[in-house]
Backbone:
């Protein structure tokens, strides 16, 4: 199997959720959500624990029953099909590799279940191992690999079925920060090379912003907002999205709630114009930036992100009196 083979198998295969609902007894986990995932794109389902994102992914995969609504892939209703017949493949959070099988046999396992001859399935397995840069490890066993290497094997095993959509459930959560960043680059590269849709569940805003062509923000079983990373970050529609995706500051006045990015706040030690008087409550040094937490009285608690060089030219201490301001155009109105 070549990259071009996989590209042709996934072309123009849009994935669509139509009033898709999931109930666990009396608990409504996913509430009649509708969304169309464009073909051949990288989408991230983003939200806090319990928001319904993993249940949504598992319904797409066929590992959870759909309580009501439909799931379409390439215009075909796959709602009631078994996982192996859907045209999707799922990469699990814990990788779920078989410890007693070699790496090559792990990757080839689904083809074995289909009755593919051994020589053919192992040849395909080695093609996938080469794709994820693990061709030298086919004879090893999972316990002989690092977490990052196991992740690559799990990815190869999912891709060998030539899916139109690859579903990834928190695939980077078990990795250390350095490897997580490296694997983000690899996942995005593979998605572009293969030309198939990736749908990736995460609770990490940074991960979603780095990877996605489209971010779908979920809250309490519903979609709060969907759009490009730039759109969702810079133009959040609700207070929840503003706080969750970017940690934006929320201000309330007579015209309604507004969001202001932390890096758009100016903090000075002398008043200018109509700047708000505030008191520094906390300081976080983050390397290239410094976060200041300030109490702005009636305006509430605000966070300002300053370049590290600007902060250290005029350093402040907790308890210091400061003045906070912003440009009117940087205050983004939110839905009430």
Residues:
């Amino acid at each position: 199997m070549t990259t071009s083979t996989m590209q042709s198998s996934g072309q123009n295969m849009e994935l669509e959720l139509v009033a898709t609902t999931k109930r666990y007894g009396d608990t409504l986990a996913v509430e009649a959500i509708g969304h169309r995932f464009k073909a051949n794109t990288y989408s991230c389902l983003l939200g806090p624990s319990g928001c319904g994102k993993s249940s949504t992914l598992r319904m797409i995969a066929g590992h959870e029953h759909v309580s009501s609504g439909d799931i379409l892939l390439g215009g075909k209703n796959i709602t009631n099909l078994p996982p192996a017949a859907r045209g999707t493949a799922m990469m699990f959070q814990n990788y779920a590799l078989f410890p007693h099988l070699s790496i090559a046999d792990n990757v080839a396992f689904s083809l074995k279940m289909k009755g593919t001859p051994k020589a053919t399935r192992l040849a395909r397995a080695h093609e996938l191992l080469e794709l994820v840069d693990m061709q030298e490890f086919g004879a090893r066993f999972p316990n002989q690999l690092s977490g990052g290497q196991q992740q690559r094997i799990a990815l190869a095993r999912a891709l060998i079925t030539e899916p139109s959509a690859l579903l990834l459930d928190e695939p980077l959560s078990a990795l250390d920060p350095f490897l997580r960043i490296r694997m983000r680059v690899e996942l995005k590269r593979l998605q572009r090379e293969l030309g198939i849709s990736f749908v990736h569940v995460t609770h990490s805003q940074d991960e979603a912003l780095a990877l996605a062509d489209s971010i779908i923000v979920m809250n309490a079983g519903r979609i709060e907002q969907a759009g490009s990373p730039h759109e969702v970050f810079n133009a959040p529609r609700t207070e929840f999205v503003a706080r969750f995706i970017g940690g934006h500051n929320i201000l309330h006045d007579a015209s309604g709630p507004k969001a202001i990015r932390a890096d758009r706040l100016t903090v000075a030690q002398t008043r200018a114009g109509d700047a708000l008087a505030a008191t520094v409550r906390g300081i976080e040094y983050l390397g290239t930036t410094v976060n200041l937490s300030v109490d702005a009285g009636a305006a509430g608690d605000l966070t300002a992100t300053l370049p590290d060089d600007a902060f250290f030219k005029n350093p402040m201490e907790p308890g210091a009196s400061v003045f906070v301001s912003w440009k009117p155009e940087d205050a983004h109105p939110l839905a009430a």
The domain at 248-333 is CATH 2.40.50.100 (OB fold (Dihydrolipoamide Acetyltransferase, E2P)). The first strand starts at residue 15 and ends at 24. The CA atoms of residues 51 and 219 lie 5 Å apart. The mean pLDDT is 91.
